[in-house]
User: Fold this.
Amino acid sequence: MTFRPKFITFDCYGTLTHFRIGDVTREVFADRVPAERMDAFLTDFRHYRRDEVMGDWRPYKEVLFRSLERACRRAKVASRTDDALRIYEAVPTWAPYPDVPPGLSKTAKEFPLVILSNAANEQIHRNVAQLGAPFAHVFTAEMAGAYKPRLRAFEYMIDNLGCAPEDILHVSSSMRYDHMSAADIGIKMKAFVKRGHDPFNPPTARSRSTTSTACRASSASERRRVPMKYESYWLDTAPAFTDSPGALAEGGRVDVCVVGGGYTGLSAAYGLARSGASVTLVEAGRIAGEASGRNGGHCNNGLSPGYADVVGAFGKDRAREMYRDFEDAVTAVETLVREESIDCDFGRCGKLKVAVKPGHYDTLARYYETMHREVDPGMELIGPGRVREEIDTAEAYGALLQKTSAQLHPGRFGVGLAQAAQRRGARVFTNARVTALERLDGYAHRVVTSRGTFEASRVFLATGASQDGPFAWLRRRIVPVGSFMVATEPLPKDVIARLMPKRRNYVTSVHIVNYFRITPDDRLLFGGRARFALSNPRIDEESAAILRATIARMFPSLADVRIDYFWGGLVDMTRDRLPRAGERDGLYHAMGYSGHGVQIAVHLGAAMADLLAGRPAKSPWLGLDWPAIPGHFGKPWFLPLVGAWYRMKDAIE
Assistant:
């Protein structure tokens, strides 16, 4: 059965017309905002503008004025009364993308076309005239009394068109905002985020398989009840955490202050409290709210860089020690879960590295020979003839199975570990951002937080890729890289039994890796470094579209599956992709897991607890040389170059 809409509706700016507000703003503020701060200024302006348009309609000049005022205040630059007016008056000068007018004219011969835009009435009609195609209707947020990314604007359009939501195909590049409202009301959505994606591709071409039909929501009303959430599935389904009783600063001085409520900090606080030390953990946000609660839920053995690279840098004996430390880390997590009865769906499942190109299988086979002989005799090579027993995708030419890997629910594990630390005597406080560390003597510091000030005989920094707080030395050595995930609606069990019957952890063999698994409630979690960039609304939209397209390519029967969750997070990369731990200038630290942190963060946090308590600490990551990354002082400007390099390698290998 094919879908043929009665109307095709379009967003205008960014979809049909080149959205130049960033270029215009650069011109307006060129003499006031330094070039090195302009990108941050534009990001703030975009975020504030979206904040301002998420309510009832008011003149767009007022929206621009309020947004600019907030951005200027944050950037500490002067704002002039005519700034918003100059930007507003530039809107009608924006022109269509070159391929848009002929595409619209062609589509208009088959479908009635409709515009639904945020622009004010007088602006939109001037721009629509430039599109050179007949439109049956033009609707604006001003007519509906609400900005477009709200149900009221879509409902206003539907009422005036006199059709059902299921009769409309809405085309927009604004996946985050338009998609949420469209899905909520039952409108079908076609999203594209880069020029060159054809918004005029006839929607009648693709038929749906029976598996696809089984994976879709049964009706538009069901879809309305389950809008996509832009938050981590793990955090959304984790239990609430309650801070320790009393004020943070009570007690004056503690043995150890742990900064960071991810797995590293929680494991250290747990170990310290268990040994009798007085410990206070402060977390700027929520427990496991960053990398610890935004990952794939894989608890894998295996190093992030290639084993041969580690041998070349450290020698065979040290490389074996490092590899086996990751394997020991999985066992450490399992022991902790069992001893503290943490309900987090922990289970040994094995990790399957899938050769997604024919030549990659030969590479895996050579790697297997080395690993099986030198360090991991339990590893298994799965040839092309058997790989479909493991995963049903045309993009599988063999695989490598590491049998000791496990999986868990990261959100529930994080909260459970925090509660275990509290039971052992640690005091844990959330929403307590560290704003200053004042060294007193030796290792002692005064810790200044947003919730109070106290003293600690030792301070342990477990901040990962955090860009917040007075930790400039660490930030020069950590590259924050965005990683993104989607979680589908629950899949039919027969579909899972065919596609991924053994419910393992899965990773692909390319440099820009994808990782995925099935959750206990039968969702497909699918992630990857879809873009080498930090998370922001534009990158998020592009990344979500890339992940959805990758799912459809690898598993065509899931092309139309509903996406219930989308989120991003930061991976704390080091230059050589190996963890670091130690002490500098009286401050202790452990981080740099480079995408393999679930197990090693827990294991290394426990080792740091021994070190902080004055006990012998054994870890291959202690004391490794850690030079700063040349040219890295703040925003990682080089990430797009790194991404381009890896994409080129994936294309030619």
